């Protein structure tokens, strides 16, 4: 399994990335969709995980993500998607959203890139995940929306695409483990506890970031 970090080179990665052997894919010119397509084409003959540079990886990330991938080795798997605060269980989907952390099986990435390139030529201002969604639909390829999330988004302004609103989830696996909760049987009260856990962790993270600066 190969791990690639999509970045513009302007951001310092969270220390949780140190859990995996990764290669940085640096989009210095902010070419967004075109650069993404080029990297799919370049590395698409191997199983790979693309991760954006503004996340926190869960504890034991490599072990956990590769265990999930072994269950769906021939499917694209999205490990963080909108809506972030909506509770749902892992399922197959035709609606692709967000690119924080995604697994691409070898071969399929190249087919996806070719179709995305066709769409980009017709719609040069399209967003990366929207282009990917349309390409998957044209290819009649479903993907796996996996929960709980194995990464947490840090909600910085995007350097890889358009600026976006809040993209943090209470359903981050570290929070569930800390509270000893089972994702498949969460109650409304459990979800409230997870929301508080999210608030606590992100408030602390923001304070630490300010102190470092």
Would you write up a description of this structure?
There is one protein chain. By secondary structure, the protein is an alpha/beta fold. The chain has a single domain, classed as Spore Coat Polysaccharide Biosynthesis Protein SpsA, Chain A. Helix content is 38%, strand content 16%. It has six helices and nine strands, in the order ββαββαβββααββαα. The chain has helices at 33-43, 61-71, 108-122, 128-139, 173-178, 188-212; strands spanning 2-7, 22-26, 48-52, 55-57, 76-78, 91-93, 101-104, 143-145, 151-153. The strands form two sheets. The chain has a seven-stranded mixed beta sheet with strand order 2-1-3-7-5-8-6, with helices on one face. Strands 4-9 form a two-stranded antiparallel sheet. Helix 1 runs antiparallel to helix 3 (108-122) and helix 3 (108-122) packs across helix 4. The termini are far apart.
State the share of residues found in helices, binned by percent.
25-40%
The radius of gyration computed from the alpha-carbon positions, rounded to a whole number of angstroms, is 17 Å
Distance between the termini: 35 Å
> The CATH topology, please?
Spore Coat Polysaccharide Biosynthesis Protein SpsA, Chain A
The residue-averaged pLDDT reads: 92
Largest sheet composition: 7 strands, mixed
Elements, N to C (H/E): EEHEEHEEEHHEEHH
**Structural class of the secondary structure composition?**
alpha/beta
CATH domain class name: Alpha Beta
* Low-confidence region ranges: 157-165
Total number of beta strands: 9
In total, the number of domains comes to 1
- Principal-axis shape equals globular
* Spatial strand sequence of the major β-sheet: 2-1-3-7-5-8-6
- What is the CATH-assigned architecture? Alpha-Beta Complex
Q: How many DSSP helices? A: 6
Q: How big a fraction of the residues is strand?
A: 15-25%
